[in-house]
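Q: Sequence in, structure out?
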Amino acid sequence: MKPEIHPDYDYIILRDKSADFAILTKSTLKPSQKMVWEDGKEYPVADVEISSASHPFYTGKQKILDTAGRVSKFEKRYGKSANK
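A: Exactly. Output:
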């Protein structure tokens, strides 16, 4: 590999404030905020809006869409399609 063309790949904390969840991982992000991790070392921290701790798919809190209701509402509004 050519030297000095790749970004630095170092440890970073990704924090999801809505779920009070944080994970230590590696990334090329360079945020200015820092936070002390469980091991006592200080790492850069980046806030994320959604993570596996708050995503509806992973938490089991998915909303079930009422597709039948949406179809009937569409048919009421625009009429049923013409018979062919």
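The CA atoms of residues 38 and 60 lie 28 Å apart.
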